[in-house]
Amino acid sequence: xxxxxxIIPFLLCVVFFASCEKDYLSTxxxxxxxxxxxxxxxxxxxxxxxxxxCLGSGCHITGGITPNLEVGKAYDQLTGLGYVDxxxxxxxxxxxxxxxxxxxxxxxxxxxxxxxxxxxIELWIQQGSQNN
Length: 132
Fold this sequence. Notes:
- By secondary structure, the chain is mainly alpha-helical.
- The protein has one domain (38-132).
- It is built from five helices and no strands.
- Helix 2 (42-53) packs across helix 5 (115-126).
């Protein structure tokens, strides 16, 4: 009986913790609203997304996984390696956009970007993926 009194609480704890999962999708987007009437600046809106979400883990840096998303290299890497095409304004045709909205091997792997950040990438592509 004493053994049973120890096993039941243990099993309840295991079930409780096994049912927990981290919600990587941000329910509240704290980024500033996007003004769709103005061009999305690569340097002011897109590069900071890469800097804060893709470089810290050591993935998309010099000597890491391509594309290199470091400042001064990201735009040339994205366009040169076919992740975006400045002549194609359909986000669905963009490898970059597909990776950030994807459910299979999404980027970044630690959790999806917020809806506002994804929208910024989408609008930047729709506006011609300019290096501005």
